[in-house]
């Protein structure tokens, strides 16, 4: 039973998330040889102020 966690910055629409879940599920089923019912996907939206890179918060540009 594959469990996939996707962390991404907030701002995607429900339709974009729906499409992401569908396509990721298809790929996992093909590669792991399992039914779609066995695939669980968790999407975690992250605020821009919770991501830092190269010593700066993403919210700071």
UniProtKB/TrEMBL annotation:
It is an enzyme of class 5 (isomerase). Keywords: Isomerase. Residues 2-56 form the 4-oxalocrotonate tautomerase-like domain. It comes from Anaerospora hongkongensis. It comes from the Bacteria. GO terms for molecular function: isomerase activity. InterPro entries: 4-OT, 4-OT-like_dom, Tautomerase/MIF_sf. Belongs to the 4-oxalocrotonate tautomerase family. The active site is at 2 (proton acceptor). Coiled coil: none annotated. This is Tautomerase. The keyword Isomerase applies. Pfam families: Tautomerase. Its EC number is 5.3.2.-.
